[in-house]
Design goal:
two-stranded antiparallel ribbon, Trna Endonuclease, Chain: A, domain 1, 5-stranded mixed beta sheet, alpha+beta, 160 residues
C-alpha cells in the first residue's frame, strides 16, 4: 500500500473497532488532520483518537524531536507536545494478508513514552516497534515488544 492507503485503511479499521466496542464514531475527512483523527463517544465519554498506520513493523513518531543523538530528550519533547486527552491507536499491517485483520494497539502518550524509555536496551529510540530484536550496536541482544496490555479490546478501550 502507499502511505496514504495505509493511513486510510488504519483509520477505517479503528472506526470498526470502536464501533464494535459500542462507541459512536465521528471521522474527519482526509488523513493527517490536526489534533484528532476520530472522535469516539459512548454515553458522556468522549475519546479523541490519533490513528497511526504502519506496514513495516514500526511507527516513526519521535524522530522530529531528536537533537544531538539525545533519544530520551526526544521522547520527552514529544510527550510535552502531546495533548493530555489524546489516545493513540497504532495499526500494524506488516505480514497481514489482503482480507486479514491488522493488529491494533491503544495507548496514551505517557504510556508510550514510559515504554520507549526502555527500548533499545534502555537507550531509547525514535521508532516505536511492534516486535524488533537488535542484533548489533548498543541495543544488541534486546528485543522491543509492544506491551500486550495495549492490544485493542473492549476492556482496553473502556479502561483507557
Amino acid at each position: 500500500m502507499t502511505p496514504y492507503q495505509v493511513n486510510v485503511a488504519a483509520e477505517a479499521f479503528v472506526a470498526v473497532i470502536m464501533s464494535q466496542a459500542g462507541y459512536d464514531v465521528a471521522m474527519q475527512y482526509g488523513t493527517t488532520q490536526p489534533d484528532w483523527d476520530i472522535l469516539a463517544t459512548k454515553s458522556a465519554r468522549i475519546l479523541k483518537l490519533q490513528v497511526k498506520g504502519s506496514q513495516d513493523g514500526g511507527w516513526g513518531l519521535f524522530q522530529n524531536y531528536i537533537s544531538n543523538a539525545n533519544y530520551h530528550g526526544a521522547l520527552d519533547a514529544w510527550l510535552a507536545a502531546q495533548q493530555p486527552d489524546m489516545i493513540y491507536c497504532l495499526v500494524q499491517f506488516f505480514d497481514v494478508p489482503v482480507g486479514g485483520a491488522p493488529r491494533c494497539y491503544i495507548a496514551r502518550p505517557a504510556e508510550m513514552i514510559e515504554h520507549m524509555h526502555t527500548t533499545r536496551g534502555g537507550h531509547g529510540y525514535t521508532s516505536l516497534r511492534e516486535n524488533y530484536a537488535y542484533t548489533k550496536g548498543i541495543g544488541a541482544g534486546h528485543t522491543d515488544i509492544i506491551p500486550i496490555g495495549w492490544l485493542a479490546s473492549r476492556s482496553r478501550i473502556d479502561e483507557i
